[in-house]
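Hi P.,

Sorry for the delay on this. The queue was packed all week, but I finally got your sequence through. Input first:
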Amino acid sequence: MPGAPSIHFVKDESFGVGGEHHHATNDDDRALIHNRVDPTNEDQLKLKRQHGHFHSLGVTQILPIPDQNLVVTISFDTKAQVFDANTGAVVMTMENTHHCRYTGCDWDKANHELFIADEKGHLAIWSIDTEKCMRSEPLETVSILGVTVFPGYV
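Then the structure:
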């Protein structure tokens, strides 16, 4: 919706994750971003909240899950983490049992499952509801570079 405020999650150089507020539409929103570097630039993003406690090494992917109000991050530290988009509280941490970094992830909205691939060619399917790995399979002998879940094909 044009003019609607939104939050954009971004990675920073200190391995943290921040939420940036974009496009003020009312007095409350304007109060959050009144300290812009350039007050005349409405398209400028301003950091709203920074979370630096998620990963010990660089974040490689951020996956928002708007219908669950969650954000998933994967990192060079061999972890995937799910956190509440509003509070920043970590909901779930998934340590890669293959001791290598995760390389891609995607969300299956219909089944509430998180698909995560790693650099050794494994694909794991995690249930957000039960916080358990439902399945883990070796699919390749090389790194899987990304994962895409197509609705209706899972």
